[in-house]
Specification:
Blueprint (H helix, E strand, L loop, with lengths): L2 E5 L5 E5 L4 H9 L8 E4 L5 H12 L3 E4 L5 E4 L7 E2 L1 H4 L9 H8 L1 E5 L12 H9 L3 E5 L2 E5 L7 E3 L5 H12 L4 E5 L6 H11 L3 E3 L5 E5 L7 E4 L4 H13 L3 E5 L7 H9 L3 E4 L3 E5 L8 E3 L11 H8 L5 E5 L9 H7 L3 E5 L2 E5 L8 E3 L3 H13 L3 E5 L2 H6 L3 H7 L3 E5 L1
Parallel strand pairs: 2-15, 3-14, 6-7, 10-11, 18-19, 22-23
Antiparallel strand pairs: 1-23, 1-24, 3-5, 4-5, 7-9, 8-9, 11-13, 12-13, 15-17, 16-17, 19-21, 20-21
This protein binds uridine-diphosphate-N-acetylglucosamine.
């Protein structure tokens, strides 16, 4: 299994290009199931989760081809096997995103229940409740959800909790329903308007994506389209925090600063200087970092996917920081690993208190999930001496060539196979 070995203590400096967003690319790839015409998608990041999704779609009969610029063409001329097997769903929960499109187009889907997940329970009850409201019947057998329907019919759906992939699944399903669907208490994450833009290019009629009420007027069929995936706001935030935490000066290109307000506010509170343009940003450390308090919540509040990385920064900030995690019940697994590097962190329930220490000291640590892995890389970049991050397959799920990008900013980091 690959590891990363990091010699910490180098302030990052230079320019880094940000990739397309994983969490936008995954639902957009599944949108290809909604039409028999080709869907061409640009700016698709080269990631393990993207290959997993492409494999899943190919197993269903979708043909795919790649161009060298990262563009992917998908064509679901006929779907031979509307099944998402356990082997794939257990490695990537986002596989559940095939459910809505399959039921809408074919009236049939068999998707494995995701099962346990390192960061918490993560049920899919809201996806199912919404599909039932649209007229699907759902049965459970041998660990699979089996959804069936004739043509779906539009409905008013009030989500009990804000769910990102739940909103995406129902938005996709409703595009081909008979009549109007209104999704209330919808997630407002920027990846949702990006998916809506792709669906609109395919002929869907959607308004309100990006707000908490989305209205979809069903159409009889969708057609092929060409769409570019938005920049990854979590990769952007990860590089911003890495630059700030190492006392660096980094310019990021190909970004969408307007999708990172909560993260930028918190970074500024730590004392770093940030400049933004339409599609670039520059972060420059400005003396010692100050402690901050933050609380994760659905967009536009502070993202849970940036919580672990901020904790690494807080571990060496002056003063005591408080981080409250409200989205996932078990998302502090990086804490024990950071403690092994010398961080002073106490956890009670969903609250972590982080007393800034003078420095971290390198050690061997183990990554347990995607964003926890990123936080350990940042901790390794700050620490004195060598840090080895094990089990980095989690990192490869969501960060494109992270060690290459960090090396170009001066980090001493290498992958050991
Ligand atoms: C998406 C993101 C993930 C991010 C998360 C929260 C993708 C592919 N993944 O995951 O990176 O961390 O949003 O911003 O976009 N819940 C239920 N019932 C449901 C659905 C969700 O109780 O039917 C709960 C979950 O357990 C969790 C909360 O709702 O506590 C939010 O989860 P959700 O927004 O659905 O996360 P994902 O869409 O899986």
């Amino acid at each position: 299994m690959d590891k990363l070995v990091i010699e910490g203590g180098v302030p990052l400096a230079g320019t880094v290009a940000i990739s397309g967003a994983k969490n936008a690319a995954l639902p957009i790839l599944t949108a290809a199931l909604l039409t028999d015409e080709p869907l061409l998608i640009d700016n698709v990041p080269h990631l393990r989760d993207v290959s997993t999704m492409l494999n899943l779609l190919m197993q269903m009969g979708v043909t795919t081809s790649l161009d060298e610029k990262g563009g992917v063409e998908l064509r679901a001329a006929s779907i031979t096997k509307p099944v998402a097997p356990y082997e794939l769903v257990k490695t990537m929960r986002a596989s559940v995103l095939v459910l809505g499109p399959l039921v809408a187009r074919l009236g049939e889907a068999r998707v494995s229940l995701p099962g346990g997940c390192a960061i918490g329970l993560r049920p899919v009850d809201q996806h199912l409740k919404g599909l039932q409201a649209l007229g699907a019947t759902i049965d459970m057998a041998q660990g699979y959800m089996i959804a069936r329907a004739g043509r779906l019919r539009g409905a008013r759906i009030r989500m009990d909790i804000v769910t990102v992939t739940g909103t995406e699944n129902l938005m996709m399903a409703a595009t081909l329903a008979d009549g109007v669907t209104v999704i209330e208490n919808a997630a407002r994450e920027p990846e949702i308007p990006d998916l809506a833009a792709c669906l609109t290019a395919m002929g869907a009629k959607i308004s309100g994506a990006g707000t908490d009420v989305i209205t979809i007027e069903g159409v009889a069929r969708l057609h092929g389209a060409h769409h570019g995936v938005m920049p990854d706001r979590i990769e952007t935030g990860t590089f911003l925090v890495a630059a700030a935490a190492t006392g660096g000066d980094v310019r990021l290109t190909g970004v969408r600063p307007d999708t990172l307000d909560a993260v930028l506010d918190k970074l500024r509170e730590t004392g770093v200087h940030i400049e933004t343009g339409v599609d670039w940003m520059r972060v420059k450390a400005n003396g010692a970092l100050k402690a901050v308090n933050l609380r994760t919540a659905p967009y536009p509040a502070f993202p849970t996917d940036m919580q672990a990385q901020f904790m690494a920064l807080c571990s060496v900030a002056q003063g005591t920081s408080r981080i409250i995690e409200t989205i996932f019940e078990n998302r502090f697994m990086h804490v024990q690993e950071m403690q092994r590097l010398g961080a002073d962190i106490a956890v009670e329930g969903n609250t972590a208190m982080i007393k800034g220490v003078d420095h971290l000291q390198g050690a061997t640590v183990m990554a347990t999930d995607l964003r926890a892995s990123a936080s350990l890389v940042i901790a390794g970049l700050i620490a004195r001496g060598a840090t080895t991050v094990e089990r980095i397959y989690h990192l490869d799920r969501g960060y494109e060539r992270i060690e290459e990008k960090l090396s170009r900013l001066g980090a001493r980091i290498r992958r050991v196979r």
